[in-house]
Amino acid sequence: MIDLSILDQAPVSKGNGPHETLRNSAELARLSEGWGYKRYWFAEHHGTRGLASVSPEIMMAHTAAATTSIRIGSGGVLLPQYSPYKVAETFRQLEALHPNRIDLGVGRSPGGTTKIRLALTDGVKKSMTEFNRQLQDLSSFLTDSIPADHDYAGIKTAPLIETAPQLWVLGLGENSARRAAQQGAGYVFGHFINPERGEKAFQIYRDHFRASAHFSAPASLCAIFVVCAATDEKAEELALSQDLWLLRVGKGADSRVPSVEEAKAYPYSPEDRKQIEENRKRMVIGSPAAVRRRLLELSDRYQTKEMMVLCNVFDFEAKKESYERLADLFL
């Protein structure tokens, strides 16, 4: 069997606003704890009307206070835009409030357009090539293990607590897998973004893993879009809104999730339909039996025992039902 977790981008459906979307996210986190999900993570996206999860640490504090056992995390903090020390203290603060429940997922994504990236750093240009150094520093700050010859040797990471957040590295291929392995961090492969390189990435992660204060053995997740409904036909219908949303996002549109009715009426070109077919490789869609079979196949292929699920359909009730059906299958 496999464990299940949720990655929430807080997608805004047409007709709703950020207020309702974020309230729905908090409700879903509470429900997922009752269904037996292992983790609930929030994404970080900037300058968009289509995704409302801007500050994962704020959503984490909100939902961790409303739950009792599910692990709460970021998926992930855009580390190149921030100070590793500040990130470490922020997440140790969360860990102090909710011991042994906090996950710190970090990614190398720039976070948006050039202007947005500069706005995030107040005009200071950051080099993506610094990510390895930042990740090393972050790991050291979290575990109070700054080397004696480091520029920041001797400083303390507050609050001074005995536990630490789990460190996870998000990625899409071999380089990110190697980074995670070298730091002894957990590894999350974004199948929902790039479904082509997972097997190689997970293999590299396992082969190069070094035990650390974070994990004594390899720990990995596969993040994937899933739509599960009573029948294959119903799941396919619900997924139409996600199909059109992804199509528009892929074209650079700042899009909210459209209704199924809008998706059915949309004038798709042959190129659009080809792209939708390609996007479907990033998803598992179907009845409980079909979804179970496909997720177990992926788990076996990737040799990972935990799936982190996204479900960006239009209707919140349908989204809840999809997650609950998944829980009934595995948890």
UniProtKB/TrEMBL annotation:
Q: Name one GO cellular component term.
A: cytosol
Where in this chain does the record put each Luciferase-like domain?
Answer: 7-300
Alphabetized InterPro entries for the sequence: Bact_Lucif_Oxidored, CmoO-like, Luciferase-like_dom, Luciferase-like_sf
Query: Record's Pfam families?
Result: Bac_luciferase
Give the matching Gene3D superfamilies: Luciferase-like domain
GO MF terms listed in the record are: oxidoreductase activity, acting on paired donors, with incorporation or reduction of molecular oxygen
Q: PANTHER family this protein is in?
A: LUCIFERASE-LIKE MONOOXYGENASE
Give the family per the record: To bacterial alkanal monooxygenase alpha and beta chains.
Protein name, as recorded: Luciferase-like domain-containing protein
What is the taxonomic lineage of the source species?
Bacteria, Bacillati, Bacillota, Bacilli, Bacillales
